[in-house]
Amino acid sequence: MLPEPELTRVSSPLPGEIVTVSALVRSVRDLLEHRYPLLWVAGEISNCVRAKSGHLYFSLKDETAQVRCVMFRNRSQMMDWEPREGLRVEARALVTLYEARGDFQLNVESMRRAGQGALFEAFLRLRDKLDKEGLFDPARKKPLPVHPRRIGIVTSLQAAALRDVLTTLARRNPSIPVVIYPAPVQGEGAAQQLAAAIATAGRRNECDVLILCRGGGSIEDLWAFNDEALARAIHACPIPVVTGIGHETDFTIAEFAADRRAPTPTAAAELAAPARAELLPHLHRLARALQRQMRSGLDARAQRVDSLAGRLQSPADRLAANSARLGAARARLGSAFASCTRNAEWRLSHSARRLAAALPNLGVLQQRIAQLDSALRRATQRRLAVLGEDLARLSLGLAHLDPAAVLERGYAIARRPDGGVVRSSVDLQAGDPLQLSFAQGAAMVRVEKPL
Questions:
Q1: pLDDT value for 106
Q2: Where are the alpha helices (DSSP H) in 21-159?
């Protein structure tokens, strides 16, 4: 139940008094607005429409009732999330009536998702901000090493999650050394110290993968992992980061920024360290395959040596054969050079004869060009004279039609304020404003009496 607000006296129609619809609706609206101040109303959004004006129109409903709502543009633009159909919300609104239709409605001042406190609202705002910056882009995430040589852990030395991670790492692969970067995981300043520990691990660069872990808890207990500086430190860390924070249903900003998210600290350790029991059979298979490849390669190279030994001949025989091939090649080269030279000389003489036959008579061409130039000049002068006469005739006609010339003779043009030209006094009434345009300037006048 809503608390009873203090009533303010609002004038209402007297018994038997006849009132207009406007007065009645206005009176009821005043009663509602004075009876109910700004209050929070919870419900589910339906019939949600954003108009071209930017105003948001929707209904809030529950199991048994609904009410129309409007959120004006200046208010809706301040929200960092978009209302949509079916979303449960809490609206801070003023109860009123829309006088034009007499509709009961709520004027919504602000709105938030239902059931989400201030911490979760801050979580959503930070998540959306960093997501828009690309900190959660899967394309930027670093792959985890298949065989890490050293694993780093960022957590509190007193955390139970640390014992779970160390136990899991010792069980899966005790040969991998572990480096712990201690930092508190809860309380004031915890986020800054966690970010500093991650920055230290990245600067020292002594591990191949980094585990950021903590046990379960409430949103307040896990709030250090919803810090913007910590998310940016994870994103900037050159070492792949695996998170195991809380339980599987817990989500934090640090997990979105990490390269891999595990549902629990134990699962994070399993992601970071390969199981020794699974690696040993694989190593045995690789060793056997390597031995087979070595034996096969040695056998193939032995056969190659035998083949080359059979084809081996003395250096003197090879030198004599190469000398004979060199002499034959020299003879073929000389014959080909002589043939090419003869062909080139014949083509050159033939081309010279054709060029001499194709040369034009330059004297005849120059005389023809001079005749054409003289004819072009005469035709151009005649055309320019004709065009000059036409231009003078057209200019004289335009001068007769120019309104400015008429105005120079003492006439004026009367126009209405909308620019229309007045052609008859019948169209005028007393008091009409007119603009008179003269040859030099204009004046505003008012009609006293049309004649």
A1: 92
A2: 21-35, 73-76, 118-133
